Each structure stands twice: as C-alpha cells, then as structure tokens.
C-alpha cells in the first residue's frame, strides 16, 4: 500500500509540474518602478487568459511542500521536487510581485519547519528526507542570468543554524576542560560506575536530543546536497570556505548525528573544492589544484587549518617509551584527521611561495612533521600523504635530504617501545622512524616522480641513496627487529628504483638495485631461517613487501608506472653497472627461478599472492628477454604451477594460478619478428596430460562457488578444448577412408579415445550455452566469450566441414553406441551449437563484450590467417554485419548436409517458441525479465537470416544420396515444414482465444506479442516450401492442406501488412509450383492492397 501511495503521489506531482509548465499564469501590468501595492482581491490587472489564479497556485505550492516534508520515498521526493522547481521557476519569472512573494513565503515556511522545536531523531528520515530537496527546488528555480536572492539568503541561514550548535555547545561547556586542548580523557572504572545510571537513563530517552541538534543535522544535509549539485557550483562557491570550517569544527560535537551529517557535508565540500579522487590512479584526479592555489583561492582556510593543527598537535608527544603510556591515554583530536585528509588532496606546487606570504602551504610543514611521532598508525599515514601537497618542487630536495638525514645510522640505536636503549644522536622511537619513512616514500612516489626535470630527479636520487645506503641497517631484520619499519624501508627503495627507471641512462639504478635485492632477499628468508613460535602478522606483511620488491628488481610490473622498464634486458645488464659482475644466467636461471618456485609455494598466503600477482603481470608484458625465455622453458616451474591447483586452497591464489595458466597458454611470443620455437605451456603436453588437466579443471568448477574463480576455470576449459578439438579433428579427417573395425589400439584415432574427446567437447559446448544466457552475470558472459574464442572450436568448422556426411538423417538421440560415421556429424552439430552461442553473445547488451567478440569472430571468418589484416589496424565491421557473415560462413561450409538445415530450423523454432512463452507469461513477471530489457537482441533478425539461408540451401544435393535414403530425406524436409505449420496454427488459435475477442487498434495482428511468433513460423514455412520445390517433388499437391489450414487460422491477423504480404508470397509460390488456381480459396482473405515488391527478409536489406 505504501508503494502504491508513493507511486500515486509522484505521478500527481509530475502531472502538476507539467500543467504548471504549460498553462498561462496571472500577470500584472503594474510597473515595477511604481512600487504600487496590489490588493489580493483586485483582479483588474490580471489577464483574462490565466487558467490558474493566485489561490490555486498557493494550494499547489502548499501541496508540493507538504509532500516534500512528509514523504520519505525517494522516487516521490524526486518527482515532487521536479514539479516544485517548475512551479517556483514560473512564479519567479512572472512580472506579478504577488507570485514572486509566494516563493519567498514558502521558503520561510520551510525554514520554520527545519528549526521547529520538539524534533526528535525520527524527524531525521533518510538524510532529512525531502527538506534538502525542497531547498534545492528553490535554488534551481531562480532564473539564469539574474542576481540570486533565495540561494544566498538560504545558505547564509543554514550556515548560521549549523554554527549555532557550536556556540550553544561552547556556552554550556558540554566538553570537559581537556576537550579545549584537543583530546578527551579516558574514563576510569570508578568514574564509569558513577555515570552508569545516567547512561541508562539516556538509553531510555535515546530519541530525545538537546535543542538544536536535529535542526543542525537538517542544515548539514541541505548543505551537502547543495554543494554536490553541479548546477549550483558557481553560486555556492562563495560559501565553501565558511561551510568547510563549520563542518570540521562539528567533528568535535558530542552528538553522533551532528558528527555524521558534518562528515557527509565535509565530503561534498572537499569534492567540490578540490575534485574527485581516483584511488586507483591518483594522477587522474579531476579539478585537483595545488596547495598554493587552494589557499589563495580560500584565504580563511589557511589560518583556520593552521590553528586547528596547532591545537591538535600540542598534545602529541615524541612517542618515546616514557611518554607512550600517557600518549595512549588520549584520544586523537577530532579535527586532526579531516584536516590531514584535506591537505593530502592537494597537488605539489611547481614553484615556492614568496617570502613572507601568509598563505604559504609550507608553513604547515613543522606541524605535519610532528604528526610522525604519533602512536596512532593512521595518523602517521595521513600525515605522510598530507606532506606531498605542501612541498613545492623547489624545496623538494632540501626536505627529502633533511628527513633522510634524521634517520639513525648503523652505529646508532633506536628506542624500543619496551626497552629503553642508550642515548643516541637523534632521539627516535620506532613510531617516529616509521613516520619519517612514510613521509620519504610519499614524497618520492608522488613529488619526485612527477618532476619534469629528469636530471634534477636523478640528482635527488643520487644524494638520497648515498644517505640511505649508510642507514641500510633499518631494512635488515637482524639489525632492526621491527618488521613494520623493515617493510617501509623496502617500500622507499622500491619507489626509488621505480622512479630511477623513468630516467634514461640513470646511474643510480645499479646502486638501488643492489641494496634492494640484498635486503629483500634477507627479508624473504626471515620466515624460513628464524620463524617465530607464534604468528606475527607484521612478519607476513614484511615478507609480502619483500617478495614484491625482490621480483620488481627483476622486472617492474607495477600498474602505476607509466613505462615498464626491464632491469635485465635480453642484451644483459647496463654497461658500467655492478650487475655486470654477476652472470646474467646465474641471476636469471638459478637464483630467480628457484626463488620464484619457492615463493609461489610459500606457506604464507601474503608471499604467494604477491608473487602470483607479479608473475601474471610479468607474463602479460610485451617484452621478451632471457628471463621470460627461462620461464617458458622451465619444466620445474610448469610442474609447480600445475601442482598448485591441487595444493592451494585459497580462492584468490587459485584465481591467480588459473590466470597464469591461461595467459601462459594464450600468448604468442615473437623474437626478432619470428615466432619463438620455445614450447608454450600446453604446446608440449600429450593427450593424456591434457585430459588429466581437463578432469582437474572440471572437478574444481563443480565445487567452486567464487564467481571470479569460476570465470577463470571456464577460460581454462577453453585452452584444454583447443588441444582436444585439434586431436579430434585430425583423427576424424584421417579416418575418412578407414573401415570400421580396423582401428589400431595405439593409434590416436582409437574409438574409445575419440569418444572421450567428444564427451569433453559436448560438456564444454553445453556449459558455454548455459553461461551465454542473458540471465547470467555479465562477467560470466564475458568469460564464456573469451573461452569460446580460446577453444578454437569455431575454427574447426573449416577443418571437418568436408567430412560431414550428407546421407545421415539428424537424430536428437546422441546416446546411441559410438560409430565413426556418427561422430563426424555429432562433432559438427556441437560446433554449430557453439557458433549459435557465439551469435547470441554478439547481440549481448554489454557493448564491450559485443565489440571485442565481433573482432574475434572476424578472425574466424577468413580461412587464411595471412589475410586477416584487420587485426593490424583496419576498422572492424559492424556487429550486425558480423552476424550475417557468420551465417554465410557456415552455409559455405555445411550447406551440403542435412545437419545444417536441421540447425537452422531449430534456431527459428527456438526464437518463435521463446516469443510465444513471453507473450503467454505473467505481465508483472515480464517487466522484470532481463531478456526483454536487452535492446540489442533482435530475434526477428536471426529468424530472417536463418530462413534466408534455409531457402538458399541446395535441396537437390540432399537427394543425391543412396536410393534407400531418398524417401527418408524427403520425409525429413516435409516433417519440418509440417511442424512449422502446426506451430503457427496452434499459436494463432490459442492467441485469439486468450484475447477473448478484444478489439485492438489496427487489428490483433499488430500486437507485438503476436507478430514475432506468427511471422517467424510463417517465414520458415515459406523458406522450407521454397527449398522443397527446388527438389521437384512428385507429391506437390499434398502440400496444399497446410496452406489452407494456415490461411484459415491467421485470418484475424492479416490486418498486419507484413503478415498479409508474406502469406501472399506463400500462396503465389504454391500457385506457381503446383498450378494456377490451386490456392484460390486463400485469395479471398488476402488484402487486395498487397505490395508488389515485398521482401520477406526486409531486415537484411
């Protein structure tokens, strides 16, 4: 009932909005300069053409406002807002001052409702329900190009409402004295017992809040929607700084409702002021601005953020052991995180600010650096990110070297959180050391990477690695027993190596590589050499980072790096590098290969997943070097990967293993322009090994429930089928002239083996057909398309086409004993089924799937690979043309056999039956059927293509068989023709009965649910009749009863011109082939205005 009520309301709102936009409204002839007051009852100035008077307009506006304030249904609120916007816009554009004042009075009512007393949390329905929508309606209704009056007034009022809660909170002194200093003292157990009764009382009246809490939440929700609206971006920009200040201050509110709404408003403001952040690729952030530009655009924010940071950092201690306990007793200042997040969104400026500039972002530097000693890990991470937007390119070298110089050296000690060691030059704790490393990594990965001057970038790396090399003990687990710090030090070196690879002929690569290779190897062996007796998650994370850094030394595969730079190219290490002292073969084959095999089989999940991710990206890289050659020729590595399918139970690792196997098998590597002769993954596997792998993949598919893993299993089935289909095709072709019973048990064409091959292909084709259904998830349909192309079964049509027997009548029972002559046609039948599944996906609603699959199918339509030039850059043809060419390709191969005719007939019948099922289904259910929503699926097009090729099949060749089979072939053709006639007559009669004599405009034949089944069956009947007549049958007159029965059944539908013209062609065809006047009984029911040049295949022209 609520849903029906909401639907009714938003339909009424849409109707009222449409009326308001169209009908004339009252106008006034009074000049605005006269400032003359017009009495409400004075109608002398109103035009006679007005359809709605002032009272009616007021009633409509009150209705809109009431719906917005009482409804919580999003659809009703959205449609009501659209109608209310149209009403207010018409009134504000009017020259009648009374109409303009109506809008202002409604906004005053809305303000009064927003701050009404006695509101509880029940009034906060779903982000204040319709209150923000009502305000937005006022804002959007103001005419363009004129000064805004409602928006500035409302925004100023909303900010004051939000600010009032902070003022009241300060006056009542709700916080403790320590809250003014930026933190809240933790309650002791004694104090907790004292306040427990108050807490229980608060739970009983949890819906009652202090006066002003609910209005403040309403205000923030309106501000959030206003600043999120792109159409209001220019008009709201002047209030952004003040609103941001209020939202950050409200993070300190004791009420969760205010903090939550302030957080939402803060998010909208940051997105509007700085831009949307792409977390996967930071460089692609839109509308991002530098820190210098941001603070000059919003001057009040610099002093506010500086004061907030100063207050928040005053309580931060140095994090040493003597202060650790007291530091942990404090809660982080509420403003610290939002301020750091805001600063982290800024870009580094290419130039530094002028001396004495009060808006200089670099002034935040000491406060941000102080956050590095905080015991809270997230604060240290936020502080490191916030530092990047404050340091300009000019000051970057100085800041980096200063931070690096503060790191303790080899002869210095670091204070542990548990044991205080001897005094050192830099009084550092593990927290401060970790914070400095985080800041180094952020500055290198963001600021240094984006430097346009390559020589300056290389000089910074040279000075930095000189300092870090003397402090390499930080990255050694033996000398610095803190896995988190070891991992962070490896990240710094990894970032430096990645940046160095972007510098051409950099002299720092070998130094960084040597240090990173040594430390990452040491960290990787940590869990093997000195495994702790207890589980330490920090050690797992350290070994994960070590695995990533170690293999990045071999080849950089990070997605964030613009260019993939192989450190060890095929020609060997760079000249003059320390790598030249190490044999390339030693690195590539012995150390690298052994480490790779151990890492993918490591007991730690973190190490395995990091190694498998790197290995997958490495396999997909376009370069072909000595290390990649060693991977593809390593039998031990292939065996290890295969064994992991059984040994690794983690679904993510299993997914990556399957991706590696699939990528390994699919890629074609070229060396010096020629295809490499090295064996690929399945290139050297025998049929027994392939079948074993097939059984393993199928068994995993049956027990796996993770969708991504099932998708990759389906793709891996495709590469298995490629080998199986190749073996089966070769065996079938070789056995053309071999008599039954002369099989060699050692011959690959052994009947038992052929039976196994066929069962694999049959299972695979049925599985692909299942996953191409429109109800399947789009990712599974994409996997089915990719697996279909990888299987190579589509190409096998050309191989076995000439071997298909023409004298065999298609049989739907494939469970009969295996025979050589039957397996050829059964194999061809499965290939045709797969082709139709492919055609079904070519009509899929996913655009990327259609485009990619169409390009792959084009590659299968040409027999000679040398002629497939479109891959090299020729624009691919349209998907519809690919579908037509696919049928043409199949007709050229299988057009001589009855199996292909049976295939075409079944497809037409299937499309027609599907349409019949749709038309008979429940109307409510049909609305939610995914198949109906696919506008790219055109079943009539498929039916016309099938019938077109059905009509063109050479029926005379079907009869050129053994005399004993001629009669069976004729019966087969007549049975299909009779079957379509029966389907057509049955549907026509049932549909007329179901309609119950209802009169449709234009006739029942024009109903969409009736047209497709009737036209498809009638077209197939026409095409089969044409095909049979080409064979010159002797019993032509026996074909007339079906025509007469069809004519009587479809008589109510012949008001449709397509049906009437097609039936006219059927009648003319039988008159021509049987004799003039044989179908006179049908001429009476055909429209006399039949088209002379009607084409039954009108969608193909």
UniProtKB/TrEMBL annotation:
Belongs to the THADA family. It holds the Pfam family DUF2428. It comes from the Eukaryota. InterPro entries: ARM-type_fold, THADA-like_TPR_C, THADA/TRM732_DUF2428, tRNA_methyltransferase_THADA. The keyword tRNA processing applies. The lineage of its organism: Eukaryota, Viridiplantae, Streptophyta, Embryophyta, Tracheophyta. Keywords: tRNA processing. Residues 11-257 form the DUF2428 domain. GO terms for cellular component: cytosol. Residues 259-443 form the tRNA (32-2'-O)-methyltransferase regulator THADA-like C-terminal TPR repeats region domain. This is Uncharacterized protein LOC104222334. One of its GO terms (biological process) is tRNA methylation. It comes from Nicotiana sylvestris.
């Amino acid at each position: 009932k609520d849903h029906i009520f909401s639907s009714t309301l938003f339909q009424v709102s849409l109707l009222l909005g449409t009326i308001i936009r169209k009908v004339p409204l009252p106008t006034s002839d009074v000049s605005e300069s006269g400032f003359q007051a017009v009495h409400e009852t004075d109608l002398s100035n109103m035009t006679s053409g007005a359809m709605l008077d002032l009272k009616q307009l007021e009633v409509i506006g009150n209705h809109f406002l009431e719906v917005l304030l009482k409804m919580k249904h999003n659809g009703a609120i959205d449609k009501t807002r659209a109608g209310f916007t149209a009403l207010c816009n018409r009134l504000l554009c009017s020259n009648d001052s009374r109409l303009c004042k109506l809008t202002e009075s409604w906004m005053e009512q809305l303000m009064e409702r927003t701050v009404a007393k006695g509101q509880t949390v029940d009034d906060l329905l779903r982000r204040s329900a319709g209150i923000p929508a009502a305000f937005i309606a006022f804002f959007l209704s103001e005419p363009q190009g004129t000064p805004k009056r409602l928006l500035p007034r409302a925004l100023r009022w909303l900010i004051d409402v939000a600010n009032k809660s902070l003022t009241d909170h300060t006056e009542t002194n709700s916080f403790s004295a320590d809250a003014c200093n930026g933190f809240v003292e933790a309650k002791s157990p004694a104090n907790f017992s004292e306040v427990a009764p108050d807490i229980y009382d608060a739970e009983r009246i949890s819906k009652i809040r202090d006066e002003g809490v609910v209005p403040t939440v309403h205000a923030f929700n309106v501000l959030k929607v206003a600043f999120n609206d792109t159409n209001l971006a220019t008009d709201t920009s002047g209030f952004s700084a003040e609103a941001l200040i209020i939202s950050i201050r409200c993070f300190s509110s004791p009420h969760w409702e205010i903090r939550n709404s302030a957080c939402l408003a803060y998010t909208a403001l940051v997105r509007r002021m700085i831009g949307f952040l792409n977390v996967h690729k930071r460089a692609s952030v839109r509308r991002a601005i530098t820190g210098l530009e941001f603070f000059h655009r919003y001057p009040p924010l610099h002093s506010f953020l500086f004061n907030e940071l100063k207050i928040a950092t005053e309580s931060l201690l140095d994090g040493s052991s003597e202060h650790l306990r007291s530091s942990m007793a404090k809660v982080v200042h509420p403003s610290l995180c939002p301020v750091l997040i805001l600063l982290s969104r800024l870009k580094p400026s290419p130039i530094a600010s002028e001396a004495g500039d009060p808006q200089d972002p670099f002034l935040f530097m000491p406060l941000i650096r102080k956050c590095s000693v905080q015991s809270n890990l997230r604060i240290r991470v936020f502080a490191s990110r916030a530092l990047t937007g404050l340091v300009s390119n000019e000051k970057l070298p100085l800041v980096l070297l200063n931070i690096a110089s503060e790191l303790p050296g080899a002869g210095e000690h670091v204070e542990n959180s548990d044991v205080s060691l001897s005094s050192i030059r830099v009084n550092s704790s593990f927290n401060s050391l970790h914070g400095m490393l985080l800041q180094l990594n952020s500055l290198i990965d963001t600021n240094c990477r984006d430097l346009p001057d390559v020589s300056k970038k290389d000089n910074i790396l040279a000075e930095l690695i000189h300092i870090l090399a003397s402090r390499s003990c930080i990255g050694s687990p033996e000398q610095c027993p803190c896995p988190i710090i070891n991992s962070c030090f490896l990240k710094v070196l990894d970032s430096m190596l990645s940046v160095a690879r972007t510098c051409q002929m950099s002299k720092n690569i070998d130094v960084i590589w040597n240090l990173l290779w040594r430390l990452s190897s040491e960290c990787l062996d940590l869990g093997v050499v000195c495994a702790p007796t207890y589980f330490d998650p920090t050690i797992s994370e350290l070994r994960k980072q070590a695995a990533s850094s170690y293999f990045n030394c071999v080849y950089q595969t990070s997605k964030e790096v613009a260019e993939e730079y192989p450190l060890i190219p095929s020609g060997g290490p760079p000249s003059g590098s320390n790598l030249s002292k190490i044999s390339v073969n030693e690195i590539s084959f012995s150390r690298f290969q052994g480490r790779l095999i151990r890492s993918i089989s490591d007991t730690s999940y973190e190490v395995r997943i990091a190694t498998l991710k790197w290995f997958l990206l490495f396999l997909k890289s376009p370069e072909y070097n000595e290390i990649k050659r060693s991977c593809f020729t390593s039998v031990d590595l292939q065996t290890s990967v295969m064994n992991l399918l059984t040994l690794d139970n983690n679904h993510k690792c299993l997914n990556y293993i399957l991706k590696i196997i699939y990528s390994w098998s699919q890629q074609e590597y070229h060396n010096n322009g020629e295809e490499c002769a090295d064996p690929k993954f399945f290139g050297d596997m025998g049929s027994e090994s392939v079948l074993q792998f097939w059984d393993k993949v199928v068994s995993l598919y049956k027990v796996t429930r993770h969708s991504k893993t099932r998708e990759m299993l389906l793709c891996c089935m495709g590469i298995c089928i490629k080998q199986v289909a190749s073996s089966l095709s070769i065996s079938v072709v070789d056995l053309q002239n071999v008599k039954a019973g002369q099989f060699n048990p050692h011959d690959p064409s052994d009947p038992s083996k052929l039976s196994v091959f066929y069962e694999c292909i049959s299972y695979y084709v049925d599985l692909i057909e299942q996953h191409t259904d429109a109800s399947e998830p789009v990712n599974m349909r994409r996997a089915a398309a990719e697996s279909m192309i990888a299987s190579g079964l589509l190409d096998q049509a050309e191989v076995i086409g000439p071997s298909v027997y023409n004298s065999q009548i298609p049989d739907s029972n494939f469970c009969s004993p295996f025979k050589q002559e039957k397996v050829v046609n059964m194999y061809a039948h499965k290939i045709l089924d797969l082709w139709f599944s492919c055609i079904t996906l070519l009509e899929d609603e996913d655009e990327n799937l259609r485009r990619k699959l169409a390009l792959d199918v084009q590659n299968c339509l040409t027999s000679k690979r040398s002629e497939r030039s479109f891959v090299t850059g020729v624009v691919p043809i349209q998907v519809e043309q690919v579908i037509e060419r696919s049928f043409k390709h199949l007709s050229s191969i299988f057009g001589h056999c009855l199996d292909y005719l049976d295939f075409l007939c079944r497809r037409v019948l299937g499309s027609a039956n599907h349409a019949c099922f749709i038309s008979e289904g429940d109307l409510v259910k049909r609305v939610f059927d995914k198949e109906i929503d696919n506008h790219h699926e055109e079943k009539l097009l498929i039916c016309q293509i099938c019938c077109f090729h059905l009509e063109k099949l050479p029926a005379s060749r079907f009869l050129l068989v053994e005399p004993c089979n001629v009669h069976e072939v004729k019966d087969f053709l007549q049975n299909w023709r009779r079957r379509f006639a029966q389907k057509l007559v049955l549907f026509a009669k049932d549909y007329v009965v179901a309609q119950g004599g209802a009169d449709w405009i234009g006739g029942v034949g024009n109903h969409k649910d009736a047209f497709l089944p009737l036209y498809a069956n009638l077209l197939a009947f026409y095409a089969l009749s044409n095909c049979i007549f080409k064979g010159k049958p002797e019993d032509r007159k026996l074909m007339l009863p079906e025509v007469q029965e069809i004519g009587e059944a479809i008589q109510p539908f012949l008001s449709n011109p397509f049906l009437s013209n097609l039936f006219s062609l059927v009648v003319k065809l039988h008159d021509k082939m049987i004799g003039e006047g044989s179908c006179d009984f049908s001429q009476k029911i055909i429209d006399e205005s039949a088209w002379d040049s009607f084409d039954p295949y009108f969608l193909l022209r």
